[in-house]
Amino acid sequence: MTASAEFTNETPLDIVLGAASARKVETAFGYSTVGQMLSHFPRRYMEIGELSKISELPVGEDVTIVAEVKSVNQRRMHSRSGFLLEVLVSDALGPEQSTLRMTFFNGYEAKRDLQVGSTAMFSGKVTLYRNHLELTHPEYSLLDAAEEADPRPIPIYPATAKFPNKKIREVMELVLAGIGTAGFPEFIPDPVLKSHRIPGRVVSYEHIHRPQTVAQGYAARKRFAFEEAFLLQLALAQRRAHRMKQPATSRSGTADGLLAAFDKTLPFTLTDGQLIAGREIADDLVRGHPMNRLLQGEVGSGKTLVALRAMLQVIDSGGQTALLAPTEVLAQQHYQSIKKHLGSLGTGGELGSDPRATRVDLLTGSAGAAERKRVLLGAASGETGILVGTHSLLSDMVRFVDLGLVVVDEQHRFGVEQRDALRSKADMPPHMLVMTATPIPRTVAMTVFGDLEVSLMRTLPPGRAPIATHIVPLQLPAMQQRLFARMAEETAKGHQVYVVCPRISEKAVEDDFLPMPIEPTPDTTASDGAAKPATMTVEKMLELLGSMDIFANTEIRALHGGMPSEEKADAMMAFDSGRASILVSTTVIEVGVDVHNATLMVIIDAENFGISQLHQLRGRIGRGGLPGTCLMTTWLDAEHPSVMRLKAVESTTDGFLLAESDLNERREGDILGASQSGSRSTLKVLRVMKDAKLIARAREAAESIVDGDDGLRTYPGLQAAVEEWVDEDMQAFLERG
Ligand code: ADP
Ligand code: MG
Predict the structure, then answer these.
(1) Whose CA is closest to atom 2 on ligand 1?
(2) Is the shortest distance between the CB of 274 and ligand 1 below 6 Å?
(3) What is the Cα–Cα distance from 671 to 20, expressed in whole angstroms?
(4) What is the pTM of this model?
(5) Which of 3, 415, 448, 723 is most buried, judging by how many CB atoms fall within 10 Å of its CB?
(6) What is the residue with the minimal CA distance to atom 15 of ligand 1?
């Protein structure tokens, strides 16, 4: 075997497997090297040692059984296309033969694998369905006679129909036979391995793919999770260290400038959260290094004001500022609210303005040529202190004399290049403040936004009225009538109503819309409940409401990203001014929109939205001291997994609690914003929520190395590993912060 112990990460799989098999692996998983194959980790292990007896299965728990297939039966589903495969199995473990039913939705694979008479290991959750125990979509692995007698755990891999678990295990045998410490040298320093009790690299590959015990498999997984966290944190620590060496203009402000004047005019006192975050930002701006700070705060916590005060400090120090918003609607709102907040202090450049005043401008894609020219000139001449805008700010045409601070609102919608484009508009790196209303737990922030400092505002300004949230099951016919009547009640009181729909029309969705995965469930609703109609759209809702007598005298407007800018602005204005009582929209109102008289929000087919999204949406109401109500409608059964999400939102208004349940349920790729960037998550093993402690420990270990005298240079092997790792698509990931 010694001759073959020469594989490295880059060894092509066709050398190991032969061309034909290598091609199949490539087709199934896209892997072409030994390193990629080795990183195809099992999702879990099944173990004969922990077998349950069919006769004693506990409802609601995860079990593993070995059983023989007795019958296979396929039937059509009532309510949706596809088929249901029912497999009856029995084991020989109970006092008498007991059978168990399993169901697979569109179980093409199971249909092929599970023949009558075959024996397999199955594992899944036991559910009670119409008085029968069953496993729904269990995982399984076919067993031959030798395996039935083998006590070692069986790894369960992400597999495909053409490349099932068994074949992956065969391939892994061949790959593992050829790896050794020469081709896969350890790069984590020995003291780190020891103090964190992390097994070595080659041993870990062996153990994760061929464990003697399940515990051994999980210990190996921990190694790879730590490795990933460690490399990431090393890269982030280096970036932080690098930033601390970069110069930036210190913006200390003045005692009697705009900021001081503004603070005197404030009609309210700042919340504790605003004061603390404000202080942290003010201190950063004074330093001679570029600030890179994330301002996190609940919806409505008053982030804009904190950002505005930071901008004024920079203007007081002779600099200019830019505020970048993700949508035109939001840019408009920011512009107006800044103008309103500043009053006469924001009228710079206008006739007879306050001598201390600065100039505030708005630049969006819809600006006419003359207006555009005026705005560009203002920025280029240095007269404009605050330039608010959308992506248009990124254009080469936009020039500043001295850009000192860039504020990015809802950063997750902006890509890397875009933020770089803004940074490059200044000779020296400007200070950067990123605002987000999506609460991010600490370890996630540490991972995803790695080198950003974080300011947190958990308190809301006083006088916020509570928001009551209810799920409205539309299967009950009376509910639909009740829903519209409730809307009419609200408009009759002179209040305003948001109606949010998942789609613009049958054909169009918002660009940033991510449909939530709706898992297959037994089609229980089909036989007894009403059939679920097609997803509601803005167009259909507008038509429906318009045709109803109760809304005959109500102005109803639509707002979505597919409308021309003037129409959007017009609709927003109509709603903002109170003229329109009902706004039917998509998620474009999710961020920032601030209409104090709105008291009711109806979210249609709410299961289409994620937890954080729902929380953001309902944050639009209850802003003016009037209590708010959020109604989330759904056609789904109360037991449907997607309704769990709605129940979570119904149960609390604490954004941080919700963020945690959201993250727990989402795929990692979504957390990292991969869905925005279009690439897959770069984290392979690490789970930002589950591995929180491990990430924190990896961060400490990484910092102590980078902050040491020679930094990462002390460990050339490790340095190379970090560089290689950063090289991949990681660069983009790091830049995201
Ligand atoms: P966020 O962007 O954090 O969701 P906003 O900045 O839109 O919140 O603020 C929401 C509303 O609260 C705005 O109308 C703002 O004027 C108001 N507001 C901000 N700070 C305070 C405060 N300290 N006291 C009272 N109202 C405030
Ligand atoms: Mg805001």
Answers:
(1) 303
(2) yes
(3) 37
(4) 0.68
(5) 448
(6) 302
Tell me, what DSSP letter sits at residue 347? B
- Six token digits for residue 624: 């003016």
Weakest mean pLDDT among 363-372, 500-509, 577-586:
500-509
Q: Ligand 1 in contact with 278 (CB < 6 A)?
A: no
What is the chain's length? 737
- Ligand 1 pocket, 271 CB below 6 A? yes
Mean pLDDT across the stretch 153-169?
85
Strands annotated E in 663-726: none
Buried-state track 41-59, b at ≥16 Cβ within 10 A, e below 16? bbebbbbbeebbebbebee
Neighbours of ion ligand 2 (CB under 5 A): 304, 592
Our measurement of the distance from residue 552's CA atom to the centroid of its chain's CA atoms, rounded to an integer in Å, reads 41
User: Which of these, 149, 85, 99, 89, lies nearest to 120 by C-alpha position?
Assistant: 89
Pair type for strands 119-129 and 139-142: antiparallel
Q: How many CA atoms lie within 13 A of 415 on its CB side?
A: 13
Mutate to test the pocket of ligand 1, among 298, 305, 332, 596 (most ligand atoms within 8 A of CB): 305
Both structure tokens of 495: 């209040």
Task: Tell me if 273 CB under 6 Å of ligand 1.
Answer: no
pLDDT in tens, 448-489: 656 678 888 887 888 777 889 999 998 888 888 899 999 999
268 lines ligand 1 (CB under 6 A): yes
Phi, psi of 54 (to 5 degrees): -60, -35
DSSP letter at 185?
Answer: -
The contacts of residue 209 (CB under 8 Å, 6+ apart) are: 38, 41, 42, 155, 172, 176
Q: Tell me the angle at which helices 272-286 and 303-316 cross, rounded to the nearest 10 degrees.
A: 30
Number of H helices and E strands in the chain, helices first, is 28, 21
Q: What is the pLDDT of residues 424-438, one digit of tens each?
A: 777 788 999 988 876
Helix (H) or strand (E) holding 99: strand 98-105
Q: Is 323 in the pocket of ligand 1 (CB under 6 A)?
A: no
Residue type, 114: L
